[in-house]
Amino acid sequence: MKKKDIVLDIKKLNIELQTGANGIPVVKKIDLRLYLGKTLGLIGESGCGKSVTSLSILRLLDAKVWNLSGELLLKGKNLMQMSHEDMRRIRGKEMAMITQNPMISFNPLITIGKHFTETLITHTKMRQKEAAKVGIEMLQRMGLQNAHKLMDLYPFQCSGGMLQRVMIAIALSMSPAVLIADEPTTSLDVTIQHQIICQMIDLKRKYDTSILFISHDLGVIARIADEVAVMYRGYIVEKAPVEVLLKNPQHPYTQALILSKPAFQKRRLEAIKGAPPRITEKYQGCPFADRCEYAHNRCLQYDMAPKIIDPLHQVCCIQARGIEVNACIS
Ligand SMILES: Nc1ncnc2c1ncn2[C@@H]1O[C@H](COP(=O)(O)OP(=O)(O)OP(=O)(O)O)[C@@H](O)[C@H]1O
């Protein structure tokens, strides 16, 4: 990948929850990059810091509660230093977000059509008629039938799957450089999930959108992502192109994630032992050590500095060892 293709460059991002005198570190010095027209999958168990990371990129975390440091470079401009007014302009136009629960993103009192026209008129020079035309086109591209009629419906008249597609259509109607998709298909049944992922892949190709796709489901990530970052307790513990990560995972946590996924395995499934630590729980060295079958005393001294396996593959484990998993991508 060339330097000019880097759309979003997250450098040493630290996020701390402010509680009393001491902050609680939730996201720890993470480095992530989004490339032009590529999808980065971010995976990890519940509570590891995926959503906090995505909200921080859009600067949507309450500054009274969260402390941020590091750099968030969107096409070279540091979002950390932007005013609220500049960020408001960037949100929607240059970076858009879709979430797990589309219902909360819609105003129940206005039609789907009005959601499109308001968004497009606010962020572009488009007039009403043109904005409505773009809305209909985008709904059709998302595979929604009777797009004209759909524009006149209110959100409560649509199913969850329809609303999820409408939300993606609105987000992409602005042709944002970056789309942050936080568990966008988690609440949908597998058939709708499959259709939406296929449509997102098509739209990404058409608009060259860079996507940060967050999920706790490795099966979904494997289908949409070009590269995957695995998060554990606020650290990116492994990062690699998707096919490398699935065939030759190096971190014991990544290996455990793959071995616990029925769709990837022909051999006996293995559950991941224990539970992820709470953010207030104290630990030394590697936060995965107490669940890791390879853990060693040295792991308790590890500073979590990433090991470079090759230029595209990094892992945070002093005992990193490849296992031939050869997970099948369906
Ligand atoms: N507003 C908040 N106040 C206090 N703690 C919070 C708040 N929001 C998140 N946290 C804590 O920060 C940590 C990271 O949360 P986050 O929502 O980013 O996790 P996640 O990986 O997205 O989980 P999930 O997959 O369940 O959404 C969790 O321990 C969570 O409890």
From TrEMBL:
PROSITE patterns for this protein: ABC_TRANSPORTER_1, ABC_TRANSPORTER_2
Pfam families per UniProt: ABC_tran, oligo_HPY
Top-level taxon of origin: Bacteria
Location of the protein in the cell: Cell membrane
One GO BP annotation of this record: peptide transport
Keywords (A to Z) from UniProt: ATP-binding, Cell membrane, Membrane, Nucleotide-binding, Transport
Coiled coil: none
Residue span, ABC transporter domain: 10-258
Gene Ontology CC terms, in alphabetical order: plasma membrane
Classification via InterPro entries: AAA+_ATPase, ABC_Ni/Peptide_Import, ABC_transporter-like_ATP-bd, ABC_transporter-like_CS, Oligopep_ABC_C, P-loop_NTPase
Matches recorded under SMART domains: AAA (SM00382)
GO MF entry, a single one: ATP binding
Main location group: membrane
Membrane-crossing residue ranges in chain numbering: none
Recorded topology in the membrane: Peripheral membrane protein
Cross-referenced NCBIfam families: oligo_HPY (TIGR01727)
Protein family: Belongs to the ABC transporter superfamily.
Name of the protein this chain belongs to: ABC transporter domain-containing protein
Species whose genome carries this gene: Geosporobacter ferrireducens
